Amino acid sequence: MPSYQAPLRDLRFVMDELLDYPAHYARLPNGEDASPDIVAAILEEGGRFAREVLLPLNQSGDQEGCVLEGGEVKAPQGFREAYQQYVEGGWPSLAADPAQGGQGLPHSLAMVLSEMICATNLAWGMYPGLSHGAADALRHHGTDEQQATYLTKLVEGIWTGTMCLTEPHCGTDLGLIKTRAVPAENEAYSITGTKIFISAGEHDLAENIVHLVLAKLPDAPEGSKGISLFVVPKFMPDAEGNPGERNGVSCGSLEHKMGIHGNATCVMNFDNATGYLVGPPNKGLACMFTMMNAARLGVGIQGLGLTEASYQNSLAYARDRLQMRALSGPQAPEKPADPIIVHPDVRRMLLTQKAFAEGGRMLVLYAAQMLDVVEHGKPGEERERAETLLGLLTPIVKAFLTEAGFEATNEGVQVFGGHGFIQEWGMEQLVRDSRITRLYEGTTGIQALDLLGRKVLMSQGETLKVFTKEIHKFCKAEEANAELAEFTQPLAKLIAEWGELTMGVGMKAMQDREEVGGASVDYLMYSGYVTLAYLFARAAKQAMATLADGAEDPAFYEAKVNTARFYYQRLLPRTRAHAQMIQAGAGSLMALTSEDFGLGFEV
Amino acid sequence: MPSYQAPLRDLRFVMDELLDYPAHYARLPNGEDASPDIVAAILEEGGRFAREVLLPLNQSGDQEGCVLEGGEVKAPQGFREAYQQYVEGGWPSLAADPAQGGQGLPHSLAMVLSEMICATNLAWGMYPGLSHGAADALRHHGTDEQQATYLTKLVEGIWTGTMCLTEPHCGTDLGLIKTRAVPAENEAYSITGTKIFISAGEHDLAENIVHLVLAKLPDAPEGSKGISLFVVPKFMPDAEGNPGERNGVSCGSLEHKMGIHGNATCVMNFDNATGYLVGPPNKGLACMFTMMNAARLGVGIQGLGLTEASYQNSLAYARDRLQMRALSGPQAPEKPADPIIVHPDVRRMLLTQKAFAEGGRMLVLYAAQMLDVVEHGKPGEERERAETLLGLLTPIVKAFLTEAGFEATNEGVQVFGGHGFIQEWGMEQLVRDSRITRLYEGTTGIQALDLLGRKVLMSQGETLKVFTKEIHKFCKAEEANAELAEFTQPLAKLIAEWGELTMGVGMKAMQDREEVGGASVDYLMYSGYVTLAYLFARAAKQAMATLADGAEDPAFYEAKVNTARFYYQRLLPRTRAHAQMIQAGAGSLMALTSEDFGLGFEV
Question: Is the ipTM of this complex over 0.95?
Answer without folding.
Answer: yes
